[in-house]
């Protein structure tokens, strides 16, 4: 029989209350999924617009279910009520786990993680939904790095089954066990992976984006590339995917990958995605990216 890993031997680490930092594309989706699966969650952002956006996205997903007859309006109200939107750390002393989902910037994440560590109890597990930044390097901001690991969801959170749980150098089995338990409570399929920039999925995905950038540099039309990749069987091509991810997040994540793998992922030209970014075209989130989203 397969030998159980350390964290698999841990007692049940079910989460009763959770919190998420950042109410953007990912934070809003994480709050929705947690609440929908019965785990009440506090959702913190730095501005009211962010919170409103996160809540309205959750509302849209729930309304769809109600309209299709898959959920009662009462249940919808109950789910929405179990998302607690906050602008401060009020109530963070009674959560079992925190998922940090603020912008993809190591400096911002360091300061947010150090800040939230002071607001939670000693055994609260802190996690980051970073796409690419090494968990061991983020843990440097913390006094209790053993309580910290990666919890990497995929977009859109409600639809994507995978969650990467990333073990940093100092991560304890307890932290992994609780994060795996939370992912399962959310109906997800967690996989525990080792730490490096990009973890597993983005180690595969970013070279693909680089391949796309080189094709466009060499004169390919991005819409034609998208069409071909779709016809090949993928749900969308690379340019459209960038628009869904968020061009700003994509550019920041590509920077982390280039720094992490300078021999393989450093590009010596300005990519089409970088040009979009310079022109404030952030994708679906602000209505325009490679495509216009109306
Ligand atoms: P986003 O731009 O949609 O949202 C970021 C949110 O964080 C904004 O609402 C912003 O106001 C808020 N924020 C900024 N500083 C904050 C702070 N100090 N405290 C609380 N909130 C703060 O970004 P996103 O796409 O949701 O990405 C969030 C994280 O998830 C990033 O690390 C990103 O790499 C990762 N991620 C993104 C995707 C994706 O497809 N977009 C997929 C997986 C992981």
TrEMBL record:
All residue ranges annotated as the 3-hydroxyacyl-CoA dehydrogenase C-terminal domain in the record: 198-292
Superkingdom of the organism of origin: Bacteria
Residue ranges of domain 3-hydroxyacyl-CoA dehydrogenase NAD binding in the record: 18-196
Family membership: In the central section; belongs to the 3-hydroxyacyl-CoA dehydrogenase family.
Protein name, per record: enoyl-CoA hydratase
Organism: Chromatocurvus halotolerans
């Amino acid at each position: 029989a397969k030998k159980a890993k350390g964290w698999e031997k841990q007692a049940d680490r079910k989460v009763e209350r959770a919190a998420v930092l950042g109410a953007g594309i990912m934070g809003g989706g994480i709050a929705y999924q947690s609440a929908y699966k019965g785990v009440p969650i506090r959702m913190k952002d730095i501005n009211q617009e962010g919170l409103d956006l996160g809540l309205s996205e959750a509302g849209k997903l729930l309304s769809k279910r109600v309209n299709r007859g898959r959920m009662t309006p009462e249940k919808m109200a109950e789910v929405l009520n179990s998302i607690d939107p906050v602008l401060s750390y009020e109530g963070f002393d009674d959560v079992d786990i925190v998922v940090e989902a603020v912008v993809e910037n190591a400096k911002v994440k360091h300061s947010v993680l150090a800040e939230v560590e002071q607001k939670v109890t000693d055994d609260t597990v802190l996690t980051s939904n970073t796409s690419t930044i090494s968990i061991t390097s983020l843990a440097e901001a913390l006094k209790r790095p053993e309580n910290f690991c990666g919890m990497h969801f995929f977009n859109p959170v409600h639809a994507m089954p995978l969650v990467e749980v990333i073990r940093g150098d100092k991560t304890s089995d307890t932290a992994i066990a609780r994060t795996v338990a939370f992912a399962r409570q959310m109906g997800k399929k967690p996989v525990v992976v080792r730490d490096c920039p990009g973890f597993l999925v983005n180690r595969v995905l970013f070279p693909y984006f680089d391949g796309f950038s080189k094709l466009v540099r060499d004169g390919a039309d991005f819409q034609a590339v998208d069409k071909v990749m779709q016809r090949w069987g993928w749900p969308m091509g690379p340019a459209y995917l960038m628009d869904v991810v968020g061009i700003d997040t994509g550019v920041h994540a590509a920077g982390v990958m280039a720094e992490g793998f300078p021999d393989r992922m450093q590009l010596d030209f300005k990519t089409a995605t970088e040009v979009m970014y310079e022109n404030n075209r952030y994708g679906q989130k602000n209505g325009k990216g490679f495509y216009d989203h109306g």
